Amino acid sequence: MGDTQIRDRHLSGLRGRIPIREYLPAAPDPAAPPLLWIHGGAFVSGGLDQLESHAVALRVAASGRRVRTVDYALIPRFRVWGPPKYRPSGNRYPAPLDDVLTAVADLMTDEPRTVLGGASAGACLAASAALRLRDSSGPGPAGLILAYATLHAELPRLPEPVRARLRGRRRIGTFTREVIRRMNLNYVGSEELLRDPDVFPGGGKLTGLPPVLLLDAAYDSLSASSTTFAGELTEAGIENEHVIVPGTRHGFLNRPRSAGFRDGTETLVRWLDRLT
């Protein structure tokens, strides 16, 4: 990993400069498609130095792939309890998605077989960007990686496998449906956009997407979204693999010294190997 070259750059976006970071492997595999990786943080936090961004990118670059991360526009924090209150911001949807689309379009100019991926809120942005690319006149992504993703406007009711994993104390500290709704409403800024399938892909038209890896935490209520989305992908005829990383909670890719990070990134790299 120490031999990976790291370069910070900026792109010109619709609203100004977009910071990006390039990870260039010392021994690149010319057949391996690059990865555009998008951090999470409830649309309100995170950046290029966030371990969920930086550590994951280093691990993937060590496998011989070029990786790009993007510092997309963030919005103000929101109340998780009490009366909802959302501060004004020009960074709400579609600003974060526009930044991601600018970063991936620039990368695909030289590398048309690019894989899109992200974690949590970043996974939502990755999936939305993949749908935008599908509907454009240009190439779509070669693959899509969604780690402990939020993909639906409203968190679906827990499917039985998720409910079984969250029995007892394992449910403590997981997201409630109300918190996820507040987070998503804070992102879009209106009830009308909350239902827009271009924003939250869950329940929308998924035909034409590339192969998808869904990487989930074992003890995470957001697994309801990934599990439901996996079923929607299958119904749409999209090749997908849904992997539950044992012993993990939401955000395990932010903990590079953990077994969950090791297992999760190894799964991610093996899946990328099969796309080569």
Automatic annotation (TrEMBL):
Transmembrane segments: none annotated. SUPFAM superfamilies: alpha/beta-Hydrolases (SSF53474). InterPro entries: AB_hydrolase_3, AB_hydrolase_fold, GDXG_lipolytic_enzyme. Keywords: Hydrolase. GO terms for molecular function: hydrolase activity. Residues 35-253 form the Alpha/beta hydrolase fold-3 domain. This is Alpha/beta hydrolase. It comes from Nocardia fusca. The lineage of its organism: Bacteria, Bacillati, Actinomycetota, Actinomycetes, Mycobacteriales.
